[in-house]
Structures are given as structure tokens and as C-alpha cells.
Design goal:
homodimer, alpha/beta, Helicase, Ruva Protein, domain 3, Dna Topoisomerase Vi A Subunit, Chain: A, domain 2, four-stranded parallel beta sheet, two-stranded antiparallel ribbon, 8 helices
Chain lengths: 199, 199
Amino acid sequence: MDTIPPPVLRLIEAFSRLPGIGPKSASRLTYYLIRSQSDEAIELSDALKELRDRIQFCSVCFNITEISPCPICQSDERDRSVICVVEEPLDVMAIERTREYRGLYHVLHGVISPMDGVGPDDLRVRELIERVATGGVKEIILATNPSLEGENTAMYVQRKINTPGVKVTRLARGLPMGGDLEYADEVTLTRALEGRREM
Amino acid sequence: MDTIPPPVLRLIEAFSRLPGIGPKSASRLTYYLIRSQSDEAIELSDALKELRDRIQFCSVCFNITEISPCPICQSDERDRSVICVVEEPLDVMAIERTREYRGLYHVLHGVISPMDGVGPDDLRVRELIERVATGGVKEIILATNPSLEGENTAMYVQRKINTPGVKVTRLARGLPMGGDLEYADEVTLTRALEGRREM
């Protein structure tokens, strides 16, 4: 006799399809929501629906936004001659938190990864090249992750841009703040030595 | 400049209110749903709404159900003289999976835990006593967890029932299948010795 009511099963399945949530966590979340006195389940349900209804990708930089072009692309206070190329919308938020960068962004939505079947055409590379071709861009900062895929993607984008007058730069690699030289891996230490600066 | 659109923030907040999901996992889940091509967000939203609309607690045993009384309480094939008392609906499913138990259930919805501010009145103990008082019950199996709170709750319920003709039993404690005597804790080993049976 199967005693789990179908709506409960359905929610457990929906939760367990999310990354990092296994069947056990999915059950736990579901039973937590059944027990919870407040309207957490309805709030989560509404938030999910609102996400689908109101969030889109910016037609210029492909960051997530409620209005397109996004506030950053529309802003008069941003330096339109610099484009920072990132993998994900979360990377935009990370860079914005520094409050140091005043240029625009371009979100690739992934990295080139043949193992996962992701090629250059699955990313927003073509759109980036079109943005550069319209002129006015002086610098492209490649801010993909310092991983194998991130490096490969950066190299691919760099070769594709190759436009006179457009400088292509890459974020500095080196020791992270609070890091320990003793425990730094060889690649990080090599990059830190290569990128050393006069004090 | 805050670049996270409010609907995204709202979903991150709703996710991070769930147990075991911190702010970082909440962001990751949200951006996963933004990126996902399929209708996962809508499916999850609908499943949550359906849960709230269709799931209720059985008026007899307080297990989760779509109809009340639940299929187990309504079934003619179950032994109505035995009630197994558990903490959570998940425990009912665990016992049902054994296919060994043919009696009814009673879900307390928690354990007595003064540290968390949960007293006997927050559990469905009174309703259990009323069920016993209506007669026909021969055995109450206390199947709360073998934890400090579970043991205390079992003892409390046992004292409260105290009805002539009603046997109160507790699930056996001992070594789990596949367990290793060498690594068993003292309490488990003590219980296993106390509960030893003739072969």
C-alpha cells in the first residue's frame, strides 16, 4: 500500500530535480513545508512564478533584468568603452560588490566545455563580437573563472575579437587576500610571481 | 547600484528560509532556475501550490493525506486494535516499507523538547489518549526515535495512556543490520545485550 499522497510525491520529485538536492533532502524539504504553520510554501510558489513572469535577459549584455536593456546598460554613469565579460549573472553581482568597476558587462552564460557538450555557439560570443563591431569599445576585460574551461573560453574570445584599437585584458591571477603562501598551489604561485609589481 | 532584480532577490530569500539551504545555495538554485530551459520553475511552483491546496492531516491519525480519514484509517484490512505512535509522517512511510505492520498509526508531529520550547500540548498526545479511550485498542507501539527526546516522549506517552487492557510496547533497540560490533556505542551494545533472545 503506497501511503504517500501524489501531491507530496510530485513536490519531492520537483525538489530532487534541482542541483545539489537529493531524494532525502527533497523529502525533508517537502515535509518541512507540510508542517510549517506559515505560508512558506505559497510564498515560494509565488516567487517562482514571479521569476518566470518578470525576469528576462538584457538584449544587450544578457544579464538578468526586469527591463531590457538592463539598468546598467541604460545608465549614463557607466563607462561605455569598457566591457567586462563574465560567465554568469552571479559574477556580475560579485564585481558590482567591489564598487570599483564602472564599465559595462557581457554575460556569456557558460564556458566552452566539450566534455559537457557546450561549444562556442551555445554561448553569447557572437553577440559580444557584434557589440565590439558597432564601435566605441576600447577595452574588453575577460573575467571568466581561472579554471581550465574559463581559460580556454577567454582565449577563444580573445582570438575572435582581435579588433585594432580594442585592448583585451584578463583579470590578474595571484595570491588571494588572507591566503597562505605555504599552501598556495604551484600555478597560483607562478602567476603571482609573473604578475609581481614594484611597490 | 544594486543590480539584483527584486523577483530574483525574493526567490533567493524564499529558498534560504528552507532548512539546510543557506544564502549561497539559495542563489545557486535561483540562477539554475533562471538558466534552465525547461519549465522547472513553473513545475515546482505548481507542485507547491498543489501541496497547500490538496494535502491535509488525517482527522484520526494526523498522518498527511488527500482525504480524511486517510486510506490507512479507512482500510478494512488493517488491524484496528494496534496503534503505532511515530514522530513524523516520514516515519509512517518507513514502517510501511517493511510491509510487516498491519495496524494503524498515530503521528505526534514532533517530540517533547523543552530546549526547543516544544511541550506535550504541542504534540497530538491528547488526541491519542482520546483514541485509546474510545476502546478497542489492545496495543500501543511507541516508535519514537531512539534519541533522548524520543525516549522522553515515549515515557511521557506511556504514563499518560496507563489504561488497563492496553499493552504499551517500544520498538526493540539493538545492533543495526550491517553494523559492526567493534564500532557500536555503549548504549546500543547495552540494549542489544539486554534484549538478547534465545536462538
